[in-house]
Structures are given as structure tokens and as C-alpha cells.
Specification:
This protein is an all-alpha fold. It has one domain. Helix content is 80%, strand content 0%. Helix 1 (7-24) runs antiparallel to helix 10 (245-271). The longest helix is centred in the first third of the chain and has 53 residues, at 75-127. It is globular, with a radius of gyration of 20 Å.
Amino acid sequence: METYFSLEMSMFLTLLAAAMWGSWMQIQKHLHGYPIAGVIFWLYTFSFILIWAITLIVSPFLLDRSILETSLENIDTVLTILVGGGLMSMGLYSSLVVIGKVGLLLSTTISGGIGILLGVFTSLAEEGLPKDEVALTLIIVSMVILIAAGFVCALASASRDKDHKIKTKSRTISVTVILLMLFTAILQNGWSMGTAAGTARGFAPVLTCAYMATGSFLSVAVITGISFTRKKQWKIVFAVGERKTPILMSAVAAVCHYGGNLMSIYSMPALSATISFLLGKSANVWTIFWGMYYKEFSGISRKTRILLWSGIGLYFVGIVVLGIYYLF
């Protein structure tokens, strides 16, 4: 009964999802002291509610059997997706810690680069290699270009800070920090782990997203819940006696984050999880565009502009290479 989007529509929705992913974290600029851990808690709470509400509404029209029957028949896949969703949300949470310890440049070049390699490997392991050698070559070329794009954009951010005379603390890269970056990349690979399992095994996309959201919510609820209880922060998290703006913004972020996830996952059967994963890396371009909107790149030097637009250009080249993939 499940119907899927066309190739063209799937590519459009995946790129739109990337734009949504690259936009929601802008709420960090409007928290006014509200803890980011609280945002993460509400983000995945609202995501869980949103995705399951959609799933319960559309499942009678998309599934041949009930949600329970479909899930029990694919219990191994469901468990894999749950774990993938849990790892992904913890990876997002951990990445905020990594950026604080080593800065955006190293976080992007090391965690981001390793993340792309792991994501492609995981997706190909589930789906298998393309039969055409040229197609495989295009995937590898696109992967390298996207890693380079992240590196160049991170250099542009570092150059911008120098232009603005922003002093950064010197950071010593210890073995512990390197392991933390590797650990973060492994956690974030939960996205590829869960979505590739659902796509490659023919599991219903709407349920793939629902169980991803469930895994994300459960892991975040447990980890942040323990932290909020130990630090006695629940009043702060619920903004008792304060404006509820951060909570409302978290709800909007959930629509962008997991609403984008739903569009991406439902588009994967037409694209493949591997191609969808790589296309999703264009989210970084939208983060940069938002940075421009907030004038973070105003008053920069010619060198910084060249780096910035070179990085953006590389992202678009990577997308074009993936488009060429479908000619083979």
C-alpha cells in the first residue's frame, strides 16, 4: 500500500529537509541564558509527539497491516532504528560539548569528516555497493568534495574571527579530546544506522521515522532527566515563572528537525540512503546563509570572502556530482 515520491520530488524534499536542518539551531542565538540541554530535551519531546501524531493519522492509508503487526514482524529492524535514533540525538548533544572544547574549525574538520566517512560506509554496508563502477566513483568523489567543503567553510569561520579580532582561547588537543571527537562522530552515525536499516530492508518509511524519533526521545529524556534531577534544574527547564519563549522555539525547531527527517526518510526509497545522507550535508550551507543574515560575515577581508564562497561552491559541486550519479 505504501507509495513513494518520484526521483525528482525526492531530491527536492531531501534538499528542503537539509535547509530545515541547517536552520533550526539558530534558536541558540535567542535563548538568553536558557540552558541548551533544556532545548535538546524539548526538541526531542516535541519531535516524538509530532512524528507519532502524524504516524497515527497516516498509517491506516500507508500500511497494509496495523502498526503493531508491522513492527512485530520486523522487530530486528525496529530495534536497530531505535538504537540509531538514540545514538543520533546523543551525538547532537555531544557535538555541542566538542565545539566548546576544540572550537568550530577542528570540530568540523575532524568530527564532520569522520562522520561523513562513517555515514557513507554504514549506508553502503546496508544497501550494498552500486553495480556500476562509475556510480561508486561518483559517490566517493562527492564524499571527498563535501569533506573539503566543510574544511574550507571552517577555515572561513576562523578567518572571520581574525578579521573581527575575536580572541579565542588556545586549546590543547589531548588524547581525551580526540577520543571525544571520534565518539561524537560515531554517535551521530546513528542517523545512517537507523535510516539505512529501514530503507534497505523495505521497512515503512513513516514507521522508520517514528521509531527514530522514539529512540531520540528516550535517550535524551534519560540522560538530560538524570542531569536535571541531580542539578535541580527542572524549574529552569520548564521556565517556571519565566517567559516560555525557549520552549516555544524548541517546538518550532522540532518541526524543522524531525519534520525534515520525515521528508528525508520518506524520500530515501527513491534516492537510496547513501545519496540521501550525502545530500543532507548541504544543511551546512544554510547554516552559513543564516550566519550571513545575522551579519556574522560582515566586514570580512577578501581572503575570508574567497574562502567562504569557495566552501559554498564546493557544497554545490558535491550536489551536482550526486545528480550526475543518476545518469548511471
